[in-house]
Amino acid sequence: MASVSLVEDLSARIRELEEELSREKAKERSGRPLIQKMSAEVLDTNPYSRLMALKRMGIVKDYEQIRTFTVAVVGVGGVGSVTAEMLTRCGIGKLLLFDYDKVELANMNRLFFQPYQAGLSKVQAAEHTLRNINPDVQFEVHNYNITTLDNFQHFMDRISNGALEEGKPVDLVLSCVDNFEARMAINTACNELGQIWMESGVSENAVSGHIQLMKPGETACFACAPPLVVAANIDERTLKREGVCAASLPTTMGVVAGILVQNVLKYLLNFGTVSFYLGYNAMQDFFPTMAMKPNPNCDDKNCRKQQEEYKRKEAAHPKQEVIVEEEEIIHEDNEWGIELVSEVSEEELKAASGPIPDLPEGITVAYTIPSKENELPAAETVEDLEQSLEELMAKMRNI
Amino acid sequence: MASVSLVEDLSARIRELEEELSREKAKERSGRPLIQKMSAEVLDTNPYSRLMALKRMGIVKDYEQIRTFTVAVVGVGGVGSVTAEMLTRCGIGKLLLFDYDKVELANMNRLFFQPYQAGLSKVQAAEHTLRNINPDVQFEVHNYNITTLDNFQHFMDRISNGALEEGKPVDLVLSCVDNFEARMAINTACNELGQIWMESGVSENAVSGHIQLMKPGETACFACAPPLVVAANIDERTLKREGVCAASLPTTMGVVAGILVQNVLKYLLNFGTVSFYLGYNAMQDFFPTMAMKPNPNCDDKNCRKQQEEYKRKEAAHPKQEVIVEEEEIIHEDNEWGIELVSEVSEEELKAASGPIPDLPEGITVAYTIPSKENELPAAETVEDLEQSLEELMAKMRNI
Description:
Two copies of one chain form a homodimer. By secondary structure, chain A is an alpha/beta fold. Helices cover 37% and strands 11% of the residues of chain A. Chains A, B: Residues 48-299 form the THIF-type NAD/FAD binding fold domain. Chains A, B: Pfam families: ThiF (PF00899). Chains A, B: Keywords: ATP-binding, Metal-binding, Nucleotide-binding, Ubl conjugation pathway, Zinc.
């Protein structure tokens, strides 16, 4: 038998511990209460005041509209996680996140994830952090690889039906993946569905990146231009096993996420000029822009179908689109029918390419041209590609 | 009297709660163990593998050197907090943080701080998060306003002596402040100490920003060119009281922090081209670069002294610096002696300016020219300034 005072002491200790635990949990979990209506009121407690100020500043007409949009982010790594955080802080209506990877300490050289999250799935960890940051945003996360057959069907279904109003398609798909296969899967899905999307990428040497807006039928799709591969026919597991990994920097990935979400905001909220392609070369602080027309002979039949549809619409309502149509340069000897509209000179593009790294056999630079027969030199960067599409075409014809 | 089994139950509950509490605390506080030596080994548990890969990629010769550098970040807001996080994740040796503000929910539209931190001082909250992210970095934080007399002296002392090796100056000072007075204080300190620093800024309409490298005596200082003010003679408290606040976006601030830290890495680790000035206009995705020579008639006597010293050094070791000297354009009718070397045309600069917001009386756009006698129109942006320095000089002569 024990004394009453002992029981009282133990009970007091339990209450003490429970209180401390609830304080500790509150720190992380209850960020702030829900906000039903965005307000422009200038209060320290209003998380939307500086966004709503965009209206008074004459930048955005109707900022509140942001709450009606749904964006799917595929890949929640160095670029995708920051992209999701920016959209969350801007008060987007709903985010769909797709990734099948786990957080590792090896990811700590980029923004967003923290060491205590190592081992958690990226989508779960991201959802937890993002809900704390802005509980007004709706989240739907999928912890799977979109490139397997079943998952691809489910992915197609969710981007077709996963908007705020279930049954409606998302407003935009953002590709923040790090491999060719996943980019091709997104491209295939968006061509079939006529879904507008944006592509993003960072080179394996960490010092360049790009974003690209894809409008099926109107702009080049990912299959229209010769494919750009991160590591030809080698998956990341192999890379790791061989003791080789891509370089990455929080700076480059932060800039790419920043210009990506800026383009998303301009597209959704209708301000400024939406870029079709914006590159970032960190070595020279050079930012090339361009627009690319679709390839009439694209391998993707849905891309060709969308092109036909776009032409029909254009014929019915001419002069809808301005930017791609303007300053058109036709490369007459280009049998792929791809047209580049570059706003920079060839010299500028040439000056912008970084050094070509010395890599082990089988590993190539990000966005290099895969050589089926190993007949092409391994290291050609995207800048080389942009520099001279004709040259590239000539080489491919010879394969 | 109570039963033994009750005491056992209570004790078990206490153990359970203690375990849960320690797990909860561990989540936040013990991010990862210290790492004595940076390694390039490709392991999921190595937070430096993707940074050390910059060496194999041929970008950086000696990445480990990052651990020997100390950087001071003044202002831990939308740009400064992300700047500090990027440097922390890159494994910088030591960070000094200066800010006197508290975290507010109104800051949640930018990256880094989270709602549960509202009410904490920015430097404390930042130190806590950054230590969890990378315990290898040393932190020194100062929760004060650098512009008051005593604090300014202490600030001068810490940038002169606060390096990893106490008594040595920091390697770089980064200005991430949001007001004219603080920028001028940093400028005064760095001119007196001959301390190299970088300036950053984001406009009040949230859609443009810039970074600038300042080398006392070699480049224009903040007092050389006509001052650029956030809100002329009105402090932020007044702005808030009147129900007016500046707009801000996580995208623009993320991009500015990204290009700032990229410039820091290029400067410290000696790769790529370090930019003297890099602007970002989000409306047009336009990124002007330029370099500015110091004004021989600068109001700051220490700037003039540093100019003399630089000239003496230049005469002793000619051809040390290339970029500022190259492509020099002399504006002959410019009595301030300021020389602009712009890599963009006037048309491009003109095209890059966003709309001028409709603001209440007394409030002007970021980086406008303060009018002493209210004789100048209130809304002239930095783009206008860059566009035509001569025009501006003519106006100032007329005052």
